[in-house]
Amino acid sequence: MTRVRVRFLGSGDAFGSGGRLQACILLASDGFQCLLDCGASSLIALKRANVDPNDIDTILISHLHGDHFGGIPFFVLDGQFSRRSRRMLFAGPPGLSERSKQAMEVMFPGSSRTERKFEVEFLELAEGFPTTLGPVRVTPYEVTHASGGPPYAFRVELGGRTIAYSGDTEWTERLVTVAAGADLFICEAYFRDKAVRYHLDYQSLMQNRSRLDCKRVIVTHMSPDMLAHSSDLEMEAAHDGLEVSL
Length: 246
Hints:
This protein is an alpha/beta fold. The chain has a single domain (about 5-230), classed as Metallo-beta-lactamase, Chain A. The protein contains seven helices and 14 strands. The strands form two sheets. Strands 6-5-4-3-2-1-14 form a seven-stranded mixed beta sheet. A seven-stranded mixed beta sheet has the order 7-8-9-10-11-12-13. Helix 1 links the parallel strand 3 (about 30-35) and strand 4. The termini are close together. The relative contact order is 0.16.
């Protein structure tokens, strides 16, 4: 079993609350590097952390909102201009390929049709079915978050460890399955007490904590309301730059 390093390069919400960058979590083990989500600010997050984007093997996208997949056009163009030669793989829900190409055309017209010296592959994952991508095995579970396509939570197996990731969702029983037996569950907690559609609040998470059979929970994607109470939480809270070893 090898060590798995988890780095929260971007732990923020869609609106940069607290000055945080959008969702971008780096998983690394034995030379393999994978991103959980690629928000619009992800290229900034990587370069601020001195991580070469060309060293990223795979990018997993939980759902099709800009703060989770909006970094794809920048990522592809950066690879083009920095002479990337290895395949760039994006894996996520149905609709990922078309929405990513649309985003590229909106931001940089013509960029989706440009010939490159590296392959850009979009792999659309089927809900509930494990998929092996090199040394990483990912199983997506559909959760509850309106995003123009199926929103996913992930179970990611890497280096003999299991990292669960909620993506964005209101409370759903699927999270019990996603977190079961995980070494780490990375879970959104958008508000502290306020329950809203499509997002998970901290109190709901706490009420169900005993049902989550995982070793550790770190909350992320926090609103100003949650950030104001971050020192009073009974769970660990992510911040940009947080590193965890499993």
